[in-house]
């Protein structure tokens, strides 16, 4: 009876702690992010080879024949046959809407992954891309696409394996009785260069020109052509990684205090660090498996959120869960419409924005200390 009472008290205490984080700035950020994602998504589904107005797109998005159709939802979630739908509704829901939803999942994964890596390494320059995780995951995904295309449903698993190998290599290279922010970034650059070269070498083993073209688009980071299949691949790992990250927010806050402080508070630092790194790798690998290598996104988003809500990871991660999807949908809309009718890969947009921001952060490194 006493243990049950204590358990209930702990649950209430944790719930109260999370509610305390929902102040005006975080709430406003989340509401604004939802509004931006919704508006950008509506703009995204309004343009294409089959033209329709924003009002017609709105009507298709909220068509009751979809929302109240069990068969339609079975098709989206489980791959069942689609019911009979009006042409506009079919185009929006079967072709355009999946792109928006996959962008939401990918943005959430990369933002959460970047935030975790920045706490685990205590380095504001850290991200899946900078630490070589993206290139490691990318190598295994590309290997699967080029040589073992029948194993495509297992892409998140293979991507996680590749990302884990890359992160372990970075840690081994940077380890000299401990690590430092600078050594981790330099080791990440080295591993990224090696794995990127191996990716390009795989093209010599691809006989099908179509496979080469799709692989090139994927390496650049693109949401063109994604569908409900990619959603089904990504949705469960995304939810799992996000929930695990939120559950580990307190540990991430402790890691930011430094190893000695965290150890004195009873934390097994290395064990927690690698467990949280595994969550970050799962998140990054999931995004990479469906959207390709989207550079610098996981670096920039946590910084934007941190400027608004502060460095408390209970708030920072919630902000990333909302801001990441919004910015990814906006970036994809820009990539699609910037040179219409040609479509620019979304990775080009994030690279153009994120590259200069990375240089700016490097210039600030001296003022950041060990963070």
Describe the protein.
This protein is mostly helical and 371 residues long. The chain is 76% helix and 0% strand. The chain has 18 helices and no strands. Helix 6 (87-120) packs antiparallel against helix 14, helix 7 runs antiparallel to helix 8 (155-174) and helix 8 (155-174) packs across helix 9. The longest helix is centred in the first third of the chain and has 34 residues, at 87-120. It is globular. 45% of the residues are buried.
- Measured distance between first and last alpha carbons: 44 Å
Shape: globular
Structural class call reads mainly alpha
| Estimated share of beta-strand residues | under 5%
Give unreliable regions as ranges. Answer: 367-371
Order of helices and strands: HHHHHHHHHHHHHHHHHH
Mean pLDDT: 83
Q: How would you characterize the largest beta sheet?
A: none
Using only C-alpha atoms, the radius of gyration works out to: 21 Å
Separate helix tally: 18
Number of strands: 0
Give helix % range.
Answer: over 70%
Quick structural overview:
With 371 residues, this protein is an all-alpha fold. It has helices at 2-20, 24-46, 54-61, 64-67, 70-78, 87-120, 133-147, 155-174, 181-202, 209-220, 228-247, 249-256, 259-264, 269-291, 297-309, 313-337, 346-363, 365-368. The model is unreliable at 367-371 (pLDDT under 50).
